[in-house]
Amino acid sequence: MKDYLNTCVPLHFIFPADGDCLNARDGEEREGMLFVPAAVCAPAGARIEINEIPAEFDGKAYTARVPLRCGRTSLTAVNRADGTRATVAVWRLKGAEGGYRLSSDDNILFLQNITENKDRYASLFDDPYLAVYKKAHDLAGAKVHLNLFYDTSTTEGFAKERGYFDLSMMTDKFKEEWESNSDWLKLSFHARNEKPDNPYTHVTMRRMEEDVRLVNEQIVRFAGKRTLSEVTTVHFGDVSRGGLRALRNLGYRALAGYFEMADGEPLVAYQYPKALTEHVGARDFWKDNEEDIFFSRIDAVINSRPTAEENISALKEALKNVHRAGFVEIMIHEQYFYPDYKWYLKNFEDIVLKTCLWLNSQGYEGRLLGQLLKDTGV
Asked: 299, CA 20 to 30 Å: which among 100, 115, 341, 358?
């Protein structure tokens, strides 16, 4: 398996690693640049320069403060004693500090409800589920991202039978309203449907492209191009390299995941190895430079705790790590909104609103990941 952190070679970067996205908390800002303490592991007796800046040995590593501008920066460490070198490419995303994003997975039922009530609803936000996110936007400036299933053919866990629905059946009556709200409300592909678990573990590029196109084309039809995002969370956060490349080929620039360890194995980490999962999980963002795709670390799945207060407490703990405190990702799942769902959260709205308002009170404002990439010019 690929050694993403290059720890198997004598001369390698300890910090930052290739693909790291640095924020203000990683160094010192001055003169429009971020100066970070780059650190390199090298053999005894080495004479290290990092981007031609002499590095000092601190007893553990060779370090030098190097400047980063917005966007991509290449860092090259050279051992003047023997000519060996190591290079990493790192990133600074414009607007990444002080932002938060609210995303939701497994979405399909609210679109069925809007379609069934298209003659009664005067607005998208007459749908009670979507109204929660409108409140979060109005009260806390939330930017909201909904990841969609294509159909309801394998939806489980509900007592009420809703009948079959897919995105081709979604009304386009509200297309203009979708587009007028696309500065804060985005839609994207999630999966064809709920089952099986881990549907894209061994997916071919062709099958992935089929599923993504099914969803993307319908989003554009009923909600417009401006509403379709270049960011998503793939169902179960597990996808083959071919599937990953299909997503990138179809315009997806960033994927969100947990990047956590569960029972010693990576969880919702897109098949990256343990060492890299732990590294990415301790940061806000990371980019696979080889595959040309960014990853965002989800800080809290807010339906996994029964109250807003418990979610806020968990966020406080997570944000003690300054490398995760630049940008905050919170996520929820649609099904927890409905009373007939087996794990229904009666206080779904309370959890969403209070968590967003708390983040707002801590100085975080709603931002979209796609906008960060556009503003950075990547």
From this structure: 341
